[in-house]
Write a structure and sequence with these properties.
349 residues; alpha+beta; binds zinc ion
């Protein structure tokens, strides 16, 4: 690492040297000495000036190319200097936020969600990594059920096919545009939870984990009309329901379900099944429902669960971020909406 830095520094020095020499030559032409102010000298000076302009233009073009290639961006990047210990299936790997984050964002959000939604996702994912304390020997793992989803280049080629180049650029742009930025509450990186989508409102963290002042229920723009994919149904037979919940079937299934007790966000807090009380989260997990925002009805042969939203419902809704971005909202405002009271800061370079 050190020799790379030294190499970069010497390249910087060489560039600086070229600029100084060019400036000195220009000065010599613009301010000729009294002896050199002769017609011949002037012609020579004009020729020298033309030559100098040519080399300056070439140098500027090469410098531009150098920065476009990304080396220059890396030098200015906070993410490139933020180490990340990534726990993969093959063990911990040392990488950087700049190297890691695009592959997490690409795995977590469709690249088609638009630049501002992708930026909001990049900040949320970066914040998640900085606050993650789930592993002793790593900052974050590649399991979506534990930390953040992660897809390597090969998996993304398979997912995106011919759109790989375009999508990867969109994701990398979102990461670079938010370089080093993360969310804090009272100076600490927040638990930046996010989920696929909510209908109407997000969930309060207290309903699932513990209460956090910035993970409270807020309105979200998804409706059954603008996000119909977030409404799903699941048919569950009486036998499967009883088996999944570890209950003994008894009596007419029409009377098995008690009324749902809803929380402030309108999601199922508790529901009784065959006289036993379950939390909405437990029912969601045991029955494989997409969220705790569900209703259940007996249709004569089985139970029909109608589910709104996808995910735990806490923090930023990704579909909501996409809809807000489509309305022209900027990523900072999307983040401020879903994580109220937090501050967007940039790590010191
Ligand atoms: Zn993990």
């Amino acid at each position: 690492m050190r020799h790379v830095l030294r190499f970069r520094r010497s390249r910087e020095q060489n560039r600086l040297k070229s600029y100084i020499i060019a400036a000195w030559r220009l000065a010599a032409i613009i301010y000729p000495t009294a002896d050199s102010v002769k017609a011949g000298e002037r012609t020579r000076n004009v020729k020298a000036l033309q030559k100098l302009f040519f080399w300056c233009a070439l140098l500027a073009a090469l410098t531009g190319l150098f920065y476009l290639r990304g080396d220059g961006a890396d030098q200015a990047s906070v993410d490139a200097r933020t180490p990340v210990a990534l726990l993969t299936g093959d063990g911990p790997v040392q990488t950087t936020m700049a190297e890691y984050l695009p592959f997490a964002v690409a795995a977590e959000m469709p690249a088609s969600f638009g630049p501002e939604a992708l930026k909001a996702q990049a900040v949320a994912a970066r914040t998640f990594v900085l606050a993650c304390r789930r592993h002793e020997n790593a900052d974050v793992c590649t399991e979506s059920g534990c930390c953040l989803a992660y897809l390597d280049e090969q998996a993304l080629h398979e997912r995106w096919g011919g759109d790989f180049g375009k999508n990867m650029r969109a994701v990398r742009d979102a990461v670079a545009a938010t370089d080093g930025e993360y969310l804090t509450y009272e100076g600490e990186a927040i638990q930046a939870a996010f989920h696929a989508g909510s209908i109407g409102a997000t969930e309060d963290s207290a309903a699932i984990w513990s209460k956090l002042p910035y993970l409270v229920s807020v309105p979200s723009p998804e409706t059954a009309e603008n996000a119909p994919e977030l409404i799903t149904t699941s048919a569950v037979s009486p036998a499967r329901l009883a088996a999944a919940l570890g209950l003994e079937p008894a009596g007419d299934p029409a009377g098995w379900l008690g009324p749902a007790v809803l929380d402030e966000a309108g999601r199922v807090r508790t529901m009784t099944v065959l006289g036993k009380r379950f939390t909405g989260s437990t029912l969601r997990s045991l029955l494989g429902l997409r969220s705790t925002a569900f209703t259940a009805a007996w249709d004569g042969t089985g139970f029909l669960f109608t589910v709104s939203g996808y995910g735990h419902g806490v923090g930023m809704s990704q579909t909501g971020a996409m809809l807000y971005a489509a309305q022209g909202m900027l990523y900072r405002d999307i983040l401020a909406h879903y994580y109220p009271g937090t501050e967007l800061v940039r790590r010191a370079p």
